[in-house]
Amino acid sequence: KPPQMPSVGAFMQTLESPAHRECLGMKEGLTGVLLREINHGPDETPGKLRAGDVLMKVGPYRVDNFSAVELLGHRVALSAVQDLWFVGDQAHLLVRRDGKDLELEVELRASTFLVPRSLYAGDLTMRLDYYVCGGLVFVPLTADFLEQAWPNQQDRPAHLMDLFYRTPVTAERSQAVVLLSILADDVNAGHGAGYVGCPLVESVSGQPVRDIADLASKLSHAVAKEKFVSIDFTMASGPYTVVLKSADVPEADARISELYQLPALTSLEL
């Protein structure tokens, strides 16, 4: 059986509000959670669930209005019940759609979070990837990184938490790559130093970035072939662009490596 944790592939909203439940046609005593978005990741055939469905039961387990179920005499999160199955298993679901109850057989698939819940991601070995260009230090965003950087969840940047909770893997983006810090040097003057808010990398020279390896490839190409390297980010406050002069980057990289005692400019095998 695959080792990954299974998922029904939906973003859910609790239904604590009596008015909301009544609006959805749920009679007194009926409970469940509202499926707001359905996500099955890239290269997946659409499932039978729809946005707007109310998920009422998973297998024999009834879902309450707070996204919890009773399991082995304890009230636990719905995710604990999903973990009783394996990826590829068929789960019997009861949903309410347009005021009617429907029973569905849905294949459980591997979770498709853009921000992995572990450094292992989908692999069996741990990877700690990074890439440095012109003093800009890039890393993939993971749950472990968020927990280590901001032990108090309330301190975590809103734009990163939105990625964590809601954003799925797509064919265009398989990793969220962020700017961890800026190692101050003349090549990046004017863009700050140290921690600058962990902005999300969007594109290099107008080309969307798929993952950290793709970022490294696009930056290397821009440094070699273009007069300027333009990197677009999304910060908590909005869009932001960093521009480096390509001709200055190679010498700056050597200077930065020596000054900051970097063992290498990247962990990637390029």
From TrEMBL:
<keyword id="KW-0378">Hydrolase</keyword>
<protein>
    <recommendedName>
        <fullName>Protease Do-like PDZ domain-containing protein</fullName>
    </recommendedName>
</protein>
<keyword id="KW-0645">Protease</keyword>
<dbReference type="Pfam" id="PF17815">
    <property type="entry name" value="PDZ_3"/>
</dbReference>
<dbReference type="GO" id="GO:0004252">
    <property type="term" value="F:serine-type endopeptidase activity"/>
</dbReference>
<feature type="domain" description="Protease Do-like PDZ">
    <location>
        <begin position="128"/>
        <end position="267"/>
    </location>
</feature>
<dbReference type="GO" id="GO:0006508">
    <property type="term" value="P:proteolysis"/>
</dbReference>
<dbReference type="InterPro" id="IPR041517">
    <property type="entry name" value="DEGP_PDZ"/>
</dbReference>
<dbReference type="InterPro" id="IPR046449">
    <property type="entry name" value="DEGP_PDZ_sf"/>
</dbReference>
<keyword id="KW-0720">Serine protease</keyword>
<dbReference type="InterPro" id="IPR036034">
    <property type="entry name" value="PDZ_sf"/>
</dbReference>
